[in-house]
Amino acid sequence: MDSINHILYIDVMEKPPLTILLSAPRGFCAGVDRAIQIVELALKKYGAPVYVRHEIVHNRFVVDSLKAKGAVFVEELAEIPDDGRPVIFSAHGMPKKVPAEAKQREMMFIDATCPLVSKVHREAERHHANGRQTILIGHDGHPEVIGTMGQLPEGAVVLIETVEDVAELNVPNPDNLAYCTQTTLSVDDTAAVVAALKARFPNIEGPHKEDICYATTNRQEAMKAIAPRCDAVLVIGAPNSSNSNRLVEVALAHGCPKSMLVQRATDIDFKWLEGVKNLGLTAGASAPEVLVEEVVNALREKFDVKVDEIRIKEENVVFNVPRSLVA
Question: Which of 120, 127, 178, 268 is the most exposed place for a label (fewest CB within 10 A)?
Answer without folding.
Answer: 268
